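so my prof wants the structure for this chain in the tokens format not the other one, which i didnt know existed until like an hour ago. anyway here's the sequence
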Amino acid sequence: MTDFIILPGSGGSGEAHWQTLWQQANPAMRRFSPASWDLPDFDDWVAALEAAVAQAKTPPVLIAHSLSCLLVAHWQTVSSLEIAGAFLVAVPDPASPVYPAYGLPFADTPRKRLRFPSLIVASTDDPYDPNGYAKAKARQWGSDLHLAGPLGHINSDSGLSDWPAGMELLMAFEREIRAADQEHAIAP
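here's what i got, hopefully its the right format
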């Protein structure tokens, strides 16, 4: 069974957020635990992600939303822990007028390919990405890109409930990762 780690953005993905609903429905999904959801501290969030990945029984798939997408990109440059892949939803543009000042330490993300498979899911009308930042990051990070249509910031305000289409994307991504791992395992 694949381990999944839920990485909410600032605010912690409340009760109506798809991440919370997914976690409640699937015991293989657990949430990382930084000290504060409302005032994210960069070093604390990196340490919390490191601890969560270290506790996984198998290399996990990270399910990140918003600010945590930027966290994942930073974390992978300082950690040697293995993950199976990262499902990155609503990557925010730090130059967006609505990007919060407390998120500035997360802003200057690496411009090189991520060291694991990744899928960026972006909305075509995300107020946190008005200029195609997610598309640019997909190219830099070597991520696959899925444009999900006009879903706002792909959060509880988007009215997605448990977001079945997102779960289908996640499960397809996880199957691709497993298939690639099996191919590598049997290669001579």
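also thought this was worth mentioning. The first strand starts at residue 4 and ends at 7.
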